[in-house]
Design goal:
- With about 130 residues, the chain is an all-beta fold.
- The protein contains no helices and 11 strands.
- Strands 2, 4, 5, 6, 9, 10 and 11 form a 7-stranded mixed beta sheet that branches. A 4-stranded antiparallel beta sheet has the order 1-3-8-7, with no helix packed on it.
- Strand 7 and strand 8 form a beta hairpin.
- The radius of gyration is 13 Å and the shape is globular.
Length: about 130
């Protein structure tokens, strides 16, 4: 069974940084892409970033491009999201997710993901 556990969220001032971690259990983690999504109160869940199974390819939403960096350490079964230059619009619950299928390009919409973590809250104060 696949389990994903996020950590690293918290309260930070605008302009600050946070590093989120997504620790996975279960076999074959290193053979799947992983993505981060976020959901703010009253808003739909949105794609943030994804990384291929090898870490060689990364994908970002336009709203975070240049500020966020996704990476992974397959030896530790962990995916990271380094978030810099945070602003109040980044406030949300951040969840990591693993797709149900191995695809050449990870999906950028939630239905493509069958395994989700419980999420970690990120709050950016102005």
């Amino acid at each position: 069974q696949v389990q994903l556990v996020e950590s690293g969220g918290g309260l930070v001032q605008a302009g600050g940084s946070l590093r989120l971690s997504c620790a996975a259990s279960g076999r074959s983690f290193s053979t799947y892409a992983v993505a981060w999504f976020r959901q703010a109160p009253g808003k739909e869940r949105e794609f943030v970033a994804a990384v291929s199974w090898s870490g060689g390819s990364t994908y970002y939403a336009d709203s975070v491009k240049g500020r966020f960096t996704i990476s992974r350490d397959n030896a530790k079964n962990t995916v990271y999201l380094q978030m810099n230059s945070l602003n109040p619009e980044d406030t949300a619950v951040y969840c990591c997710a693993r797709p149900t299928q191995r695809l050449s390009r990870p999906p950028t919409t939630a239905p493509g993901y069958g395994y989700w973590g419980q999420g970690t809250q990120v709050t950016v104060s102005s």
